[in-house]
Amino acid sequence: MALRGNLRDFTITQLLNLINLAHKTGALVVEGPSQTARVAFREGKLAYAQVDQEESSLATVLHKAKRLNLGQYRSIQQRTAHISDKELGLLLINAGYLSQDDILLNLQQYYSDIVQRLFTWVEGFFHFDIDFLPPDERICVRMDLENLIIEGSRQLREWEQLQDEIPSLDMSLKFTDRPGANLRNINLNVEEWRVVSYINPRNTIRQIASTTKMNDLEIRRIVYGLLQAGLIEITRSENAAPQVPTVRIFPTEDKEEQKSLVNRLINRIRSL
Amino acid sequence: MQTVKMVVTGPFNAGKTEFIRSVSEIDVVSTERKISSVAERKMKEATTVAMDFGRITVDDDLVLYLFGTPGQRRFDFMWEILSEGMLGFIVMVDSSRPETFREARSILETFHAYAPTPYVVAANKQDMKDAWEIEDMRHVLRLDSSVKLLSCVAHDRSSVKAILLELLYSILAKMENGE
Q1: Whole domain around residue A177: which residue ranges?
Q2: Is there a contact between B172 and A4 if contact means CB atoms under 8 Å apart?
Q3: What is the mean pLDDT of chain A?
Q4: Is residue A259 part of a domain?
Q5: Contact status, residue A229 vs residue A195, Cβ threshold 8 Å
Q6: Considering the entire predicted model, what is its pTM?
Q7: B17 contacts B68 by C-beta, under 8 angstroms
């Protein structure tokens, strides 16, 4: 079944988390604005990654990691162009250039760098391809996703903190009743002034964002700053409906009667 | 006459009105209005702006009311009012529109904050080819295994009955645990 969507709705962190928790095998294909990445997983572990037709042979990876100098790199390319990475790896190990751990660590670093790059992709589409297999000639790794997820989460943290501080954009703002506060003595930038000019219990934060053409993150950042400075406070919109008195859940206080009532409901629904 | 109520909530176009319509013995009293937003109009012609209202008569002395909330955030001032005194609530999620999952999670949290009553999550439109698998949805919606996440097809009465029953079982279990 479909595991596809838009990066605007799902972050890479969320997708990796899903793959990790569900122990998925297959490839996450992410189509960014200018590139497409394929990241393969085996049972929820990172196995392989590539971006478009970017050169990702073992020789290139080791050269970029400065484990092979330019002469060695060219020599390998000329002499071993026809052999697979697995064979090249064995040759390097047998010749005493590198250990198996060196090779795997460098590949892990290369693949995780690709995944880290994906965290910066906020536009594009993704789908999970269960039939994708890494090319035979490449070496796969087996890498836990937790650390990658943690790194991605750090990038998301600011956004989430702001969401926690300002959970709803449908609330309004008002200036705090502080006799000493004087806006003229406070240094605000142009964007902050634009927001300040619309602060009124009749305007929701969302309306202010819309009018000032700010996205959710931008308006939250500014509102958070103003809140922290003690200049404003969040208030219920004056346009919202008044609260009604609390209503009882059950028409009776008796616990046994309440259970009987629920059982009657169950029987009725069953008979529908 | 005694009355109890349940609330059916979820993002825009999740299938709340359809859900209530499938089991209500009266024509759903719907407060749908023609959609003004171009983006939303592409999805459906009319939407619920205040609430949907369905009824199931249990016996001579008891009636269950089903209230459907408006899906769009701009009407969320209605949510708290509708959640007053609810026996439990159902969060409808359109399984084929992953872009609404985050909103669904947020709605769930909001309603749970209004009233810590039992709830179930209905993964609606499971009959559609683009529907996500239930367990994938559980991960993305961050629902732990104790939360009932149930397959649903809102226009199928038996499916809707199953959801309502699961919610009632949860309510009964909570009462029996003395919570």
Answers
A1: 172-235
A2: no
A3: 83
A4: no
A5: no
A6: 0.55
A7: yes
What CATH number labels B2-176?
3.40.50.300
Residue A156: pLDDT over 70? no
User: What pLDDT is recorded for position B172?
Assistant: 94
Give ∠ CA B17-B18-B20 in degrees, rounded to 5: 65
Over range A179-193, report the average pLDDT: 68
Contacts of A122 in chain B (CB under 8 A): none
Pick among A237, A262, A271 to test the B interface (most B CBs inside 10 A):
A262
Q: Is residue A243 part of a domain?
A: no
Q: Give the distance from residue A57's alpha carbon to the nearest chain B alpha carbon, in angstroms.
A: 33
Instruction: List the single range of A82-86, A145-149, A161-165, A170-174 with lowest mean pLDDT.
Output: A161-165
Q: CA triplet A266, A272, B5: central angle to 5 degrees?
A: 50
The pair of structure tokens assigned to B4 is 């109890």
Beta bridge partners of B48: B32
Residue A267 in any domain: the answer is no
Angle subtended by helix axes A85-94 and A100-118, to nearest 10: 140
* Lowest pLDDT segment from A189-193, B12-16, B168-172: A189-193
What was the pLDDT predicted at A244? 40
pLDDT attached to residue A243: 43
Count of domains forming chain A? 2
Per-domain residue ranges of chain B: 2-176
Closest among B141, B129, B109, B124 to A14, alpha carbons compared: B141
The answer to whether position A256 is within a domain reads no
Q: Which residues lie across from B65 on neighbouring strands?
A: B5, B55
Q: Which residues of B touch A251 (CB under 8 A)?
A: 2-4
The yes-or-no verdict on residue B7 having pLDDT over 90 is yes
- b/e burial code for range A57-84 (CB count within 10 A of at least 16 → b): bbbbbbbbeebbeeeebeebeeebeeeb
Helix (H) or strand (E) holding A256: helix A255-271
Nearest to A265 by CA among B65, B69, B1: B65
- The three-class DSSP label of residue B164 is helix
User: What tokens were used for A134?
Assistant: 């890494």
Q: What tens digit of pLDDT does each residue of A118-129 get?
A: 876 767 899 999
ipTM value, please give it. Answer: 0.86
Provide the 3-class DSSP secondary structure of residue A183.
helix
B22 contact partners, CB below 8 Å, separation of at least 6:
B154, B155, B156, B157, B159, B160
